[in-house]
Amino acid sequence: MTLKITNISKTYPNGVQALKNITLTIPNGMYGLLGPNGAGKSTLMRILATLQEPDEGSVYLGDIDVVNQKDEVRKTLGYLPQEFGVYPKVSAESLLDYFAILKGITTRGARKEIVEALLRQTNLWDVRKQKLGGYSGGMRQRFGVAVALLGNPKLMIVDEPTAGLDPAERVRFLNLLSELGENSVVLLSTHIVEDVSELCTHMAIINKGEILHEAEPLKAMEKLTGRIWRRIIQKSALSQLEREHKIISTKLLGGRTVIHVYSEEEPAGFDKVQPDLEDVYFTTMAGYYRQETKQEPKEK
Ligand code: ADP
Ligand code: MG
Protein backbone atom coordinates (compact mmCIF):
# COMPACT_ATOMS: atom_id res chain seq x y z
CA MET A 1 0.00 0.00 0.00
CA THR A 2 1.29 3.45 -0.93
CA LEU A 3 0.01 6.82 0.20
CA LYS A 4 0.18 9.28 -2.66
CA ILE A 5 -0.22 12.97 -1.88
CA THR A 6 -0.45 15.25 -4.92
CA ASN A 7 -0.43 19.07 -4.97
CA ILE A 8 -2.18 19.56 -1.63
CA SER A 9 -2.75 23.15 -0.54
CA LYS A 10 -4.60 24.51 2.46
CA THR A 11 -5.28 28.06 3.59
CA TYR A 12 -7.14 28.71 6.84
CA PRO A 13 -9.96 31.26 6.98
CA ASN A 14 -7.65 33.69 8.80
CA GLY A 15 -5.40 33.75 5.73
CA VAL A 16 -2.59 31.50 7.00
CA GLN A 17 -1.40 29.33 4.13
CA ALA A 18 -0.55 26.20 6.08
CA LEU A 19 0.26 23.93 3.11
CA LYS A 20 1.63 24.98 -0.27
CA ASN A 21 1.39 22.47 -3.05
CA ILE A 22 2.58 19.41 -1.13
CA THR A 23 3.46 16.32 -3.18
CA LEU A 24 4.78 13.19 -1.47
CA THR A 25 4.82 9.47 -2.07
CA ILE A 26 4.86 7.46 1.13
CA PRO A 27 5.65 3.74 0.91
CA ASN A 28 5.04 0.98 3.45
CA GLY A 29 7.12 1.36 6.57
CA MET A 30 8.01 4.19 8.91
CA TYR A 31 7.97 7.62 7.33
CA GLY A 32 9.09 10.71 9.22
CA LEU A 33 7.64 14.15 8.62
CA LEU A 34 10.14 16.47 10.25
CA GLY A 35 9.69 20.17 10.77
CA PRO A 36 9.55 22.97 13.35
CA ASN A 37 6.41 24.20 15.08
CA GLY A 38 4.02 25.84 12.67
CA ALA A 39 5.44 24.01 9.63
CA GLY A 40 2.08 22.49 8.72
CA LYS A 41 2.56 18.94 10.00
CA SER A 42 -0.69 18.68 11.96
CA THR A 43 -2.64 20.28 9.13
CA LEU A 44 -1.33 17.69 6.67
CA MET A 45 -2.02 14.87 9.10
CA ARG A 46 -5.58 15.97 9.75
CA ILE A 47 -6.18 16.03 6.01
CA LEU A 48 -4.78 12.51 5.67
CA ALA A 49 -6.92 11.42 8.61
CA THR A 50 -10.05 12.77 6.82
CA LEU A 51 -10.73 15.38 9.50
CA GLN A 52 -10.05 18.35 7.30
CA GLU A 53 -10.44 19.10 3.60
CA PRO A 54 -7.63 20.41 1.44
CA ASP A 55 -8.43 23.39 -0.82
CA GLU A 56 -6.71 21.65 -3.70
CA GLY A 57 -5.00 18.40 -4.54
CA SER A 58 -5.60 14.72 -4.07
CA VAL A 59 -4.62 11.95 -1.69
CA TYR A 60 -4.78 8.27 -2.53
CA LEU A 61 -4.23 5.35 -0.17
CA GLY A 62 -3.80 2.57 -2.71
CA ASP A 63 -6.99 2.91 -4.77
CA ILE A 64 -8.93 4.79 -2.11
CA ASP A 65 -9.54 8.48 -2.75
CA VAL A 66 -8.92 9.84 0.74
CA VAL A 67 -10.61 13.21 0.17
CA ASN A 68 -13.81 11.79 -1.32
CA GLN A 69 -14.09 8.31 0.20
CA LYS A 70 -13.71 9.21 3.85
CA ASP A 71 -15.63 6.21 5.17
CA GLU A 72 -13.42 3.81 3.22
CA VAL A 73 -10.28 5.39 4.66
CA ARG A 74 -11.65 5.44 8.19
CA LYS A 75 -12.11 1.66 8.12
CA THR A 76 -8.40 1.22 7.72
CA LEU A 77 -7.04 4.27 9.53
CA GLY A 78 -5.37 4.59 12.90
CA TYR A 79 -4.81 8.17 14.05
CA LEU A 80 -3.04 9.42 17.14
CA PRO A 81 -3.65 13.18 17.31
CA GLN A 82 -1.10 15.57 18.76
CA GLU A 83 -3.42 16.26 21.65
CA PHE A 84 -6.22 14.04 22.81
CA GLY A 85 -8.29 13.75 25.93
CA VAL A 86 -9.02 10.60 27.87
CA TYR A 87 -11.79 9.90 30.30
CA PRO A 88 -9.81 10.25 33.54
CA LYS A 89 -12.05 8.07 35.69
CA VAL A 90 -12.17 5.08 33.38
CA SER A 91 -9.61 2.28 33.27
CA ALA A 92 -7.55 1.62 30.15
CA GLU A 93 -9.13 -1.78 29.75
CA SER A 94 -12.72 -0.50 29.88
CA LEU A 95 -12.10 2.40 27.53
CA LEU A 96 -10.26 0.27 25.00
CA ASP A 97 -13.10 -2.24 25.14
CA TYR A 98 -15.55 0.57 24.53
CA PHE A 99 -13.60 1.90 21.53
CA ALA A 100 -13.45 -1.65 20.17
CA ILE A 101 -17.25 -1.76 20.18
CA LEU A 102 -17.32 1.54 18.31
CA LYS A 103 -14.91 0.05 15.78
CA GLY A 104 -17.49 -2.66 15.14
CA ILE A 105 -15.86 -5.49 17.07
CA THR A 106 -19.09 -6.55 18.70
CA THR A 107 -18.46 -10.20 19.51
CA ARG A 108 -17.54 -10.33 23.17
CA GLY A 109 -14.97 -13.14 22.92
CA ALA A 110 -13.18 -11.67 19.92
CA ARG A 111 -13.11 -8.28 21.59
CA LYS A 112 -11.65 -9.65 24.79
CA GLU A 113 -8.82 -11.24 22.83
CA ILE A 114 -8.08 -8.12 20.80
CA VAL A 115 -8.13 -5.83 23.83
CA GLU A 116 -5.79 -8.13 25.73
CA ALA A 117 -3.40 -8.42 22.78
CA LEU A 118 -3.25 -4.64 22.35
CA LEU A 119 -2.75 -3.97 26.06
CA ARG A 120 0.11 -6.46 26.06
CA GLN A 121 1.63 -5.05 22.88
CA THR A 122 1.61 -1.53 24.30
CA ASN A 123 2.95 -2.79 27.60
CA LEU A 124 -0.09 -1.63 29.55
CA TRP A 125 -1.36 -5.04 30.64
CA ASP A 126 -0.13 -4.70 34.20
CA VAL A 127 -1.76 -1.29 34.59
CA ARG A 128 -4.95 -2.05 32.65
CA LYS A 129 -7.18 -1.63 35.72
CA GLN A 130 -5.75 1.77 36.60
CA LYS A 131 -7.71 4.90 35.83
CA LEU A 132 -6.41 6.82 32.81
CA GLY A 133 -6.30 10.05 34.81
CA GLY A 134 -3.37 8.61 36.76
CA TYR A 135 -1.38 7.60 33.68
CA SER A 136 1.97 9.22 32.88
CA GLY A 137 2.49 10.94 29.53
CA GLY A 138 4.18 7.88 28.08
CA MET A 139 1.47 5.50 29.28
CA ARG A 140 -1.16 7.78 27.83
CA GLN A 141 0.58 7.87 24.45
CA ARG A 142 0.86 4.08 24.44
CA PHE A 143 -2.82 3.88 25.26
CA GLY A 144 -3.42 6.18 22.27
CA VAL A 145 -1.51 3.74 20.10
CA ALA A 146 -3.58 0.83 21.39
CA VAL A 147 -6.75 2.70 20.40
CA ALA A 148 -5.28 3.64 17.02
CA LEU A 149 -4.33 0.02 16.37
CA LEU A 150 -7.87 -1.32 16.81
CA GLY A 151 -8.95 -2.91 13.55
CA ASN A 152 -5.45 -3.41 12.12
CA PRO A 153 -5.05 -0.14 10.24
CA LYS A 154 -3.19 -0.05 6.94
CA LEU A 155 -2.54 3.64 7.48
CA MET A 156 -1.28 4.77 10.86
CA ILE A 157 -0.81 8.46 11.54
CA VAL A 158 0.96 9.62 14.68
CA ASP A 159 1.30 13.35 15.24
CA GLU A 160 4.21 14.46 17.46
CA PRO A 161 3.90 11.46 19.75
CA THR A 162 7.17 11.91 21.61
CA ALA A 163 6.79 15.58 22.55
CA GLY A 164 6.69 15.80 26.32
CA LEU A 165 7.85 12.25 27.05
CA ASP A 166 10.81 11.67 29.34
CA PRO A 167 13.81 9.87 27.80
CA ALA A 168 12.91 6.39 29.06
CA GLU A 169 9.28 6.73 28.00
CA ARG A 170 10.39 8.03 24.65
CA VAL A 171 12.58 4.99 23.99
CA ARG A 172 9.78 2.64 25.00
CA PHE A 173 7.37 4.48 22.77
CA LEU A 174 9.69 4.47 19.75
CA ASN A 175 10.29 0.75 20.21
CA LEU A 176 6.56 0.19 20.09
CA LEU A 177 6.22 2.20 16.89
CA SER A 178 9.13 0.42 15.25
CA GLU A 179 7.20 -2.84 15.41
CA LEU A 180 4.31 -1.44 13.42
CA GLY A 181 5.94 -0.39 10.21
CA GLU A 182 6.29 -3.59 8.30
CA ASN A 183 2.88 -4.17 6.77
CA SER A 184 1.39 -0.73 6.82
CA VAL A 185 2.13 2.91 6.16
CA VAL A 186 3.16 4.59 9.40
CA LEU A 187 3.50 8.34 9.18
CA LEU A 188 5.13 10.02 12.14
CA SER A 189 5.40 13.76 12.52
CA THR A 190 7.95 15.27 14.82
CA HIS A 191 10.19 18.25 15.44
CA ILE A 192 12.78 15.94 17.04
CA VAL A 193 15.48 14.85 14.58
CA GLU A 194 16.39 11.75 16.61
CA ASP A 195 12.86 10.36 16.28
CA VAL A 196 13.42 10.19 12.55
CA SER A 197 17.03 8.99 12.60
CA GLU A 198 16.18 6.18 15.00
CA LEU A 199 13.05 4.93 13.27
CA CYS A 200 12.37 6.03 9.75
CA THR A 201 13.52 4.61 6.43
CA HIS A 202 12.10 7.59 4.55
CA MET A 203 11.45 11.16 5.49
CA ALA A 204 10.48 14.62 4.37
CA ILE A 205 11.48 17.95 5.87
CA ILE A 206 8.66 20.49 5.93
CA ASN A 207 8.84 24.17 6.76
CA LYS A 208 6.32 27.00 6.29
CA GLY A 209 3.97 24.71 4.44
CA GLU A 210 6.52 23.51 1.90
CA ILE A 211 8.44 20.29 1.46
CA LEU A 212 12.10 21.28 1.40
CA HIS A 213 13.63 17.84 1.15
CA GLU A 214 12.39 14.31 0.58
CA ALA A 215 14.97 11.63 1.26
CA GLU A 216 16.12 8.42 2.81
CA PRO A 217 17.98 9.50 5.95
CA LEU A 218 21.02 7.29 5.33
CA LYS A 219 21.45 8.51 1.76
CA ALA A 220 20.92 12.13 2.71
CA MET A 221 23.67 11.89 5.33
CA GLU A 222 25.97 10.22 2.83
CA LYS A 223 25.41 12.99 0.30
CA LEU A 224 26.62 15.55 2.82
CA THR A 225 29.87 13.74 3.50
CA GLY A 226 32.82 16.11 3.23
CA ARG A 227 30.65 19.20 3.46
CA ILE A 228 30.10 19.59 7.19
CA TRP A 229 32.84 21.11 9.33
CA ARG A 230 33.03 21.78 13.00
CA ARG A 231 34.83 24.19 15.27
CA ILE A 232 34.77 24.99 18.94
CA ILE A 233 34.71 28.72 19.38
CA GLN A 234 34.47 31.54 21.86
CA LYS A 235 30.96 32.81 21.85
CA SER A 236 32.20 36.32 21.16
CA ALA A 237 33.67 35.15 17.82
CA LEU A 238 30.30 33.97 16.55
CA SER A 239 29.11 37.06 14.71
CA GLN A 240 32.43 37.39 12.86
CA LEU A 241 32.33 33.71 11.83
CA GLU A 242 28.72 34.08 10.72
CA ARG A 243 29.84 36.61 8.16
CA GLU A 244 32.59 34.32 6.83
CA HIS A 245 30.89 30.93 6.83
CA LYS A 246 27.60 29.20 6.20
CA ILE A 247 26.88 28.26 9.78
CA ILE A 248 24.10 25.68 9.98
CA SER A 249 24.03 25.11 13.72
CA THR A 250 25.36 26.54 16.96
CA LYS A 251 25.33 24.37 20.01
CA LEU A 252 26.55 24.43 23.54
CA LEU A 253 28.61 21.45 24.60
CA GLY A 254 29.89 21.30 28.14
CA GLY A 255 29.75 25.08 28.37
CA ARG A 256 31.55 25.63 25.08
CA THR A 257 30.11 26.74 21.75
CA VAL A 258 30.34 24.30 18.87
CA ILE A 259 29.44 25.40 15.38
CA HIS A 260 28.82 23.33 12.28
CA VAL A 261 29.31 24.95 8.91
CA TYR A 262 28.42 23.89 5.39
CA SER A 263 31.24 24.15 2.89
CA GLU A 264 32.23 22.22 -0.21
CA GLU A 265 35.87 23.04 0.47
CA GLU A 266 37.78 22.68 3.71
CA PRO A 267 37.58 25.91 5.68
CA ALA A 268 40.75 26.81 7.60
CA GLY A 269 40.64 25.98 11.28
CA PHE A 270 37.73 23.52 11.11
CA ASP A 271 37.53 19.75 11.57
CA LYS A 272 35.63 17.51 9.22
CA VAL A 273 32.68 15.72 10.80
CA GLN A 274 30.66 12.72 9.70
CA PRO A 275 27.27 14.29 8.94
CA ASP A 276 24.35 13.12 10.99
CA LEU A 277 20.65 13.70 10.38
CA GLU A 278 20.72 16.90 12.37
CA ASP A 279 23.27 18.26 9.88
CA VAL A 280 20.93 17.24 7.05
CA TYR A 281 18.05 18.99 8.79
CA PHE A 282 19.89 22.25 9.49
CA THR A 283 21.55 22.30 6.06
CA THR A 284 18.12 21.91 4.49
CA MET A 285 16.48 24.52 6.72
CA ALA A 286 19.28 26.98 5.89
CA GLY A 287 18.69 26.41 2.19
CA TYR A 288 22.08 24.87 1.40
CA TYR A 289 20.92 21.36 0.60
CA ARG A 290 19.94 20.84 -2.99
CA GLN A 291 18.75 17.33 -3.64
CA GLU A 292 19.42 15.54 -6.91
CA THR A 293 20.87 18.62 -8.50
CA LYS A 294 24.37 19.91 -8.87
CA GLN A 295 23.06 23.45 -8.52
CA GLU A 296 25.17 25.86 -6.56
CA PRO A 297 23.78 26.16 -3.06
CA LYS A 298 21.79 29.32 -2.58
CA GLU A 299 23.71 32.23 -1.05
CA LYS A 300 22.36 33.45 2.24
P1 ADP B 1 2.67 22.07 13.01
O1 ADP B 1 1.83 20.90 13.35
O2 ADP B 1 3.81 21.74 12.09
O3 ADP B 1 3.14 22.83 14.22
P2 ADP B 1 0.19 23.27 12.08
O4 ADP B 1 -0.33 22.47 10.95
O5 ADP B 1 -0.44 23.08 13.41
O6 ADP B 1 1.78 23.10 12.15
O7 ADP B 1 0.07 24.80 11.71
C1 ADP B 1 0.51 25.34 10.48
C2 ADP B 1 0.13 26.82 10.42
O8 ADP B 1 -1.29 26.93 10.34
C3 ADP B 1 0.55 27.62 11.63
O9 ADP B 1 0.89 28.91 11.20
C4 ADP B 1 -0.70 27.65 12.49
O10 ADP B 1 -0.73 28.78 13.30
C5 ADP B 1 -1.78 27.67 11.44
N1 ADP B 1 -3.03 27.00 11.90
C6 ADP B 1 -3.14 25.74 12.32
N2 ADP B 1 -4.43 25.43 12.61
C7 ADP B 1 -5.15 26.55 12.34
C8 ADP B 1 -6.53 26.89 12.43
N3 ADP B 1 -7.44 26.01 12.82
N4 ADP B 1 -6.89 28.14 12.07
C9 ADP B 1 -5.98 29.04 11.65
N5 ADP B 1 -4.67 28.79 11.54
C10 ADP B 1 -4.24 27.57 11.88
MG1 MG C 1 1.45 19.99 15.12
Topology at a glance:
Elements: E1 3-11, E2 17-26, E3 29-34, H1 41-48, E4 56-61, E5 64-65, H2 70-75, E6 77-80, H3 92-102, H4 108-121, H5 137-149, E7 155-159, H6 167-178, E8 185-190, H7 193-199, E9 202-207, E10 210-215, H8 217-223, E11 228-233, H9 238-244, E12 246-253, E13 256-262, E14 271-272, H10 277-285
Helix pairs in contact: 3-4, 4-5, 5-6
Family: Belongs to the ABC transporter superfamily.
GO molecular function: ATP binding
Pfam families: ABC_tran
Low confidence ranges: 292-300
Percent of sequence in beta strands: 25-35%
Rg calculated over all Cα atoms: 22 Å
Cofactors, ions, other ligands: adenosine-5'-diphosphate, magnesium ion
Q: Helical amount among residues, as a percent range?
A: 25-40%
- Mean pLDDT comes to 92
- Strand arrangement, major sheet: 6-7-8-3-9-10
Structural class: alpha/beta
Tell how many strands the DSSP assignment holds. Answer: 14
Number of helices: 10
Alpha-carbon distance between the termini?
40 Å
Describe the sheet with the most strands.
Answer: 6 strands, mixed
The general outline is globular
| H and E string | EEEHEEHEHHHEHEHEEHEHEEEH
Domain ABC transporter: 3-233
Keywords: ATP-binding, Nucleotide-binding, Transport
GO molecular function: ATP binding
Pfam families: ABC_tran (PF00005)
Characterise this structure.
The protein is of the alpha/beta class. Helix content is 31%, strand content 28%. The chain is built from ten helices and 14 strands. It has helices at residues 41-48, 70-75, 92-102, 108-121, 137-149, 167-178, 193-199, 217-223, 238-244, 277-285, and strands spanning 3-11, 17-26, 29-34, 56-61, 64-65, 77-80, 155-159, 185-190, 202-207, 210-215, 228-233, 246-253, 256-262, 271-272. The strands form three sheets. Strands 6-7-8-3-9-10 form a six-stranded mixed sheet, with helices on both faces. Strands 2-1-4-5 form a four-stranded antiparallel sheet. Strand 7 (155-159), helix 6 (167-178) and strand 8 form a beta-alpha-beta unit. Helix 4 (108-121) crosses helix 5. The chain is globular. The site of magnesium ion has 5 residues, from helix 1.
